[in-house]
């Protein structure tokens, strides 16, 4: 859906999406890294289980909700990636205790 | 990395580091007032100057001179004594000017003598059939990814809607080597006549030449379909095609990505929750705060600057930021105001920056069918409530957005009405034969962004706080 411009010379950052290593770039938000990767980043909604991807990328729509380092319902578009970050695509509601 | 505010109280707290907030904080600090700037993003710039200090787009022409103007604002701020905290989400502001802010999962509390809200705008909801499908995004979302990560569309891409941002985004995508298959222009033909009386001011504004050049640049490379009156996104679990009607003819094209845009509207959540009075703006079709000429709201001590004060663009936002900050300086340290640009000069700058705006508002006024959906089209994305659900609720007695919450939970999901509020107001107004002003808006309250119970529970408690709730 998206590709990186060749002029982007930022250093790589390795994150893990549902356990699979994905190369992002320093300064990417989690949502941007997911959309730039080849992984299926579609979450499913809490209400009907419908598939969604980020919509606004600016912190207002909450369609980018994702589990980051064990904490659920984070807005992926507001969190920058960090080396070793563990991302889980959220299926349904946030689970109690995470 | 995450730092709490250094003090408990400030002369001026500015919320939002876009053009208005950057200018306001720099001005207030320059006059010697203790100033705190809180911003939710990773770095300064807001949306229009997004990633201004970190963008990987090094070829400056690709983003345009208007974008790089943001760098000067950031420089001025950094040269000032203002304290700046990013990744700081303000979740409460009240009439006492007490502010609660979430930073790195913990809440801090600060008090201000004056607050300048510079929380900007968000894109107007574009509730068409299929707008919740993966692969449908806002034009602003694509621009955010382009500026902050140099990412451009590379599958089959359709851009649909209207307004200056749409053409700017298209030009930027093409310059960075991205793909656009078709642009579907939804501008109503009748709008050209409505806008005509305001054309002179626009023709003599800087927007005219820039806009024309950009449209030419895009039209040379992309097929444009104008007069689009209907628009649908469809696909199975993912966007597959976009269909539309133009000139009475229906057509469908395969698409991986659909970028929607029909203008921006003030982001009202924090201001409304603080009790600032807003009124329906019939021209811009949104809620705008009631303000005086210096941006002061109906809540003493709270001013609003930038697009949150009514949409007028980045140049006007910067000036409004300076005006609001100067007004704060005049109130708190009158002697220091002499250091700043005189108010009369600022007001004349503002008039210049606002020139041509009415023309744009009239020309790009979104059509009713793209604002007020029907049938199975989702209105509330969070709670997945359709237009028909809302009309059914009206039929059995829901009178306004707040009653509707009890019927259908609209606006009660995590986005807190940001993506459905305007649609709900207009849909209910139409169904009930009332004005949007009469129908009103959701009653917004803190926390204006979701925070965890754990974060609330970790807030330091005084003995009196504990006594208030613990028995015995």
Search tags:
heterodimer; A: 98 residues; mainly beta; 1 helix; 7% helix; globular; B: alpha/beta; five-stranded parallel beta sheet
Structure description:
The complex is a heterodimer of chains A (98) and B (472). Chain A is mainly β and 98 residues long. Chain A has one helix at 30-36, and strands spanning 2-4, 12-17, 20-25, 43-44, 51-52, 65-68, 71-75, 86-88. In chain A, strand 4 (43-44) and strand 5 (51-52) form a beta hairpin. Chain A is globular. Chain A starts with a strand and ends in a 10-residue tail after the last strand. The longest helix of chain B has 19 residues, at 314-332. Chain B has 19 helices and 22 strands. In chain B, helix 1 runs parallel beside helix 3 (65-79) and helix 6 (189-195) packs antiparallel against helix 12. With 472 residues, chain B is α/β, with parallel strands linked by helices. In chain B, 36% of the residues lie in helices and 22% in strands. In chain B, strands 1, 2, 3, 4, 5, 6 and 20 form a 7-stranded mixed β-sheet that branches. A 5-stranded parallel β-sheet of chain B has the order 8-16-10-11-12. Chain B is globular, with a radius of gyration of 23 Å. The chains are: A mainly beta (98), B alpha/beta (472). At the A-B interface, strand 1, helix 1 and strand 5 of A face strand 8, helix 4 and strand 9 of B. Strand 1 (2-4) of chain A pairs antiparallel with strand 9 of chain B, so a sheet runs across the interface.
């Amino acid at each position: 859906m998206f590709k990186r411009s060749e002029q982007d010379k930022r250093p790589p950052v390795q994150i893990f999406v549902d356990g699979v290593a994905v190369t992002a770039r320093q300064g990417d938000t989690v949502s941007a890294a997911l959309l730039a990767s080849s992984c299926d980043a579609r979450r499913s909604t809490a209400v009907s289980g419908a598939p969604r991807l980020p919509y606004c990328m600016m912190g207002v729509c909450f369609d980018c909700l994702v589990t980051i380092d064990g904490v659920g319902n984070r807005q992926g578009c507001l969190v920058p990636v960090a080396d070793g970050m563990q991302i889980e695509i959220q299926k349904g509601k946030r689970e109690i205790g995470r | 990395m995450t730092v709490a505010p250094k003090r408990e109280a400030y002369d001026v707290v500015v919320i939002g580091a876009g053009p208005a907030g950057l200018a306001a904080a720099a001005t207030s600090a320059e006059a010697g007032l203790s100033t705190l700037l809180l911003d939710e993003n990773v770095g300064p710039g807001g949306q229009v100057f997004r990633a201004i200090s970190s963008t990987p787009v090094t070829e400056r022409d690709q983003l345009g001179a208007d974008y790089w103007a943001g760098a000067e604002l950031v420089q001025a701020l950094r040269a000032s004594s203002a304290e700046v905290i990013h990744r700081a989400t303000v979740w409460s502001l009240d009439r006492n000017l007490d502010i609660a802010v979430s930073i790195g999962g913990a809440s801090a509390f600060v008090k201000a003598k004056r607050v300048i809200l510079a929380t900007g705008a968000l894109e107007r909801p574009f509730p068409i059939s299929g707008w919740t499908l993966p692969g449908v995004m806002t034009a602003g979302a694509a621009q955010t990814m382009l500026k902050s990560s140099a990412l451009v569309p590379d599958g089959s891409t359709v851009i649909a809607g209207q307004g200056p941002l749409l053409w700017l985004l298209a030009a930027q995508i093409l310059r960075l080597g991205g793909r656009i298959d078709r642009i579907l222009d939804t501008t109503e033909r009748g709008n050209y006549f409505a806008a005509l009386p305001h054309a002179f001011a626009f023709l003599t504004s800087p927007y005219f030449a820039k806009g024309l050049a950009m449209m030419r640049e895009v039209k040379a490379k992309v097929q444009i379909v104008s007069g689009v009156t209907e628009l649908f996104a469809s696909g199975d679990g993912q966007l597959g095609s976009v269909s539309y009607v133009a000139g009475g003819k229906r057509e469908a094209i395969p698409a991986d990505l659909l970028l929607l845009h029909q203008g921006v509207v003030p982001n009202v959540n924090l201001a409304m929750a603080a009790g600032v009075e807003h009124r329906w703006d019939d021209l811009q079709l949104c809620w705008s705060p009631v303000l005086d000429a210096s941006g002061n709201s109906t809540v003493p001590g709270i001013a609003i600057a930038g697009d949150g004060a009514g949409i007028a663009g980045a140049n006007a936002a910067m000036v409004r930021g300076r005006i609001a900050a100067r007004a704060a300086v005049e109130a708190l340290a009158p002697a220091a105001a002499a250091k700043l640009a005189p108010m009369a000069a600022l007001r004349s700058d503002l008039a210049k920056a606002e020139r041509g705006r009415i023309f744009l508002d009239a020309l790009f006024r979104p059509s009713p069918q793209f604002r007020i959906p029907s049938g199975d089209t989702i209105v509330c994305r969070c709670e997945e409530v359709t237009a028909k659900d809302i009309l059914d609720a009206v039929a059995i007695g829901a009178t306004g957005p707040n009653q509707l919450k009890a019927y259908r939970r609209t606006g009660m999901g995590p986005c807190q009405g940001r993506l459905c509020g305007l649609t709900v107001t207009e849909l209910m107004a139409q169904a009930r034969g009332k004005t949007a002003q009469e129908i009103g808006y959701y009653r917004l309250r803190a926390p204006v962004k979701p925070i965890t119970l754990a974060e609330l529970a970790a807030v330091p408690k005084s003995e009196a706080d504990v006594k208030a709730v613990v028995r015995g």
